[in-house]
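re: that chain from earlier
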Amino acid sequence: MTFILSTNSPSCLLFSLQFLGTFCLWFGWYGFNPGSTLNISSEKLGDVASLAAVNTTLGAAAGAVSALFTKSIRETRRTGVTTYDLTAAMNGCLTGLVAITAPCATVEPWAGFVIGIIAGWLYLLGSHLLVMYRIDDAVDAIPVHMVGGAWGVISAGLFTNESRLEAAFGMTENIGWFYEWGRGSGNFTLLGIQLIAVLFILAWVFAIMGPFFIILNYYNWLRVDPLEEEVGLDISRHNGSVYNYEEGTAKVESIDSLHKRRSIRGSHSGRSKSGKITQINDTFPDEPIANIESGVGVQE
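^ sequence. v structure.
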């Protein structure tokens, strides 16, 4: 099997930066999870931090491998061609990191691996549902953070080990549901608390952010218009393209249409410092385009 990647291709730079960002997040997670121990002044706390680091590694790696190869198997069965989706691998890795955060200090390494595997599957399911229901989430933040986070909280209620819980928090009364069955009690307390926590977080977010997004949607501030989407926000809102036009996905005719539309609009919508309407030059330099769209206009 041969992999060909042109160094002049926009996708080469894109995936390089995406992988760099993914590994930066993965590296930062070691400060987040093991660092939450706050100190390692004793042997017990050192063991807790070490376990958190090991589980962080296993969860991330398992999530990446799970998402990558599961999607490859699915595409092979569907099309007969084996492909490897690097975006699925990166987002699977991040979903594994999110999922292992809650139970990183209270579960055994084998459980951390299982949690990561399931996180990769849940990411793929969540991403598929977004497409199915036409929910706009360009970076798959919902399956990575909401779905992965919810699974992580629930997994703590399933896999928390008695000895690990005692070392990290000094308590053993309520442990993971699987371990509760192992000691013959079936105690649902910890898992029930975790489920309530997930429901409370969802309710709190919807209550606080729901009105905010309803207002944005009412005024049509949630997204730009279709032409600006086609051109790309780097050109339409940030005065420049990452790539040459012939290398990027933006079409030259779409860019010209956007410039012409803004010129016509700008000849009637420029504003001076006093707030009076003033005419905008019909040429298309970068600065007037940005000023027209932001509502600032050209100063007299």
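Confidence is low (pLDDT under 50) at residues 1-9, 270-300.
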